Amino acid sequence: MRFESLDEWLPWLEQLHPLAVELGLERVIQVASDLTINTSLSQVITVAGTNGKGSTLAALQALLSCPHKTLTHPSIGVYSSPHLKHFTERVQVNGQPIEEAYFCQALERVDQARLRCELTLSYFEFTTLAALLIFSEQGLDYILLEVGLGGRLDAVNIIDADIAVITPIDLDHQAWLGDTREAIAIEKAGILRSGQSSVIADLDPPQSLIKQVKALKVEAVWPKQQNDDGHGFFYSTENSGLSWQGKTEGGKCLLQRLPVPQLAAPSWSAALQVALLLNALPSENICRQLLGSVTLAGRLQRISYANRVILLDVAHNSQSVARLADYLANESTSEGEKSARWIGVFAALDDKDIPQMLDLTASQIRKWYLPVLDNCSRARPPTEIAEYLEKLGTNSPVKSIIDAGIGFSVKESLINAIHEGAEGDKIVIFGSFYTVGEALVAIES
């Protein structure tokens, strides 16, 4: 074996291929064929989109894990990215991360196959093939796959899914996917197949997505307002509860008086519709229990630590940060606070629209810490982020409230925020998976 631990494998994979990202399926398909990866015995659900993919997967995993008419003990493999703390979070079987030794064995087999094919693979392509190889040999009932980047040319797309899900689409990864929602939607629509079932969770889908669905004659279920016949799926969150209606061949399925979910309501709504299409929707009582209990690390995750409320959110683009900003504002309003009591710990990658992310949240955050991320060369320097903040012109002189917080590590920033904040201050950590992941590791330690 080339290596025996992921601490050895992963740095080697990062430098194996000349490009960190090279979209395209030819090399991956060739190596997958050599490995004889076969997922045809499993129901495969592929999830693409900009925001809500991880939450949709978590909701789906919870729903499909429940016994139903045809499966008393469903088995499920889930592939997602990126991870927060440990790489094995990306590959889970029946709710448990894969054992490191098992994954290293799969990486070795991928390495041997790509050598036989005389090819190199990127980090993501290599690890995706290892995950698919593991799933194909497990005899799983369901395989849930999250697209890493785009859709059409993403390594995950070598698998033909039984159901494709497209979550809300926004501007992100423009260097690879395009500068408009219309262009990005075409890339996301690449996971669709002719005649396939799909669930479109975007409440305002780009026209390019609608045209592609029609061209491929995809059997799509849309949010209700996109259907002339009024029989799509929808949800509402009135009176502190959630009502959901799904579309079936015979008409509709209605669930009422559900609790407000811990995960985003659009993600739950899409996941419920997928389970309905698979004839695997649990009872109303079980759905009620799941919506009130299922959480996902780093998604509006609240932790009480050292007498502080700490909120962790991987929001890293305009759409997700806007949702976070609404959450911060609503919490302040519900508690009758006249001014923001949030301390922000923020770091983001260089390809993000950082000025807009700061503009959306600045009114809710009274003090900022701008850390340096460990082992992440793609992060925007904290001094540049501080310059953006200075230009926002908030009520207080921004420079005076961020100077002390520039350039620490995430752990040091968190410690300072805990000990230097005023009584009643709460801490929000956001901007990237790296930022939240480092914070979670710091809290655990």
For this entry, give a set of tags.
alpha/beta; Protein-Tyrosine Phosphatase, Chain A; eight-stranded mixed beta sheet; UDP-N-acetylmuramoyl-L-alanine:D-glutamate ligase
Question: How would you characterize this protein structure?
Answer:
- By secondary structure, the protein is an alpha/beta fold.
- The chain is built from 16 helices and 16 strands.
- Strands 4-3-2-5-1-6-7-8 form an 8-stranded mixed β-sheet, sandwiched between helices.
- The mean pLDDT is 90.
Quick structural summary:
The chain is α/β, with parallel strands linked by helices and 445 residues long.
CATH architecture of the largest domain: 3-Layer(aba) Sandwich
Q: Could you describe the largest sheet, including whether it forms a barrel?
A: 8 strands, mixed
Q: What count of domains describes the coordinates? A: 2
Please report the distance between the alpha carbons of the first and last residues: 32 Å
- Main-sheet strand order equals 4-3-2-5-1-6-7-8
What low-confidence regions span 5 or more consecutive residues with pLDDT below 50?
none
Helicity range of the residues? 25-40%
The CATH superfamily name of the largest domain is Mur-like, catalytic domain
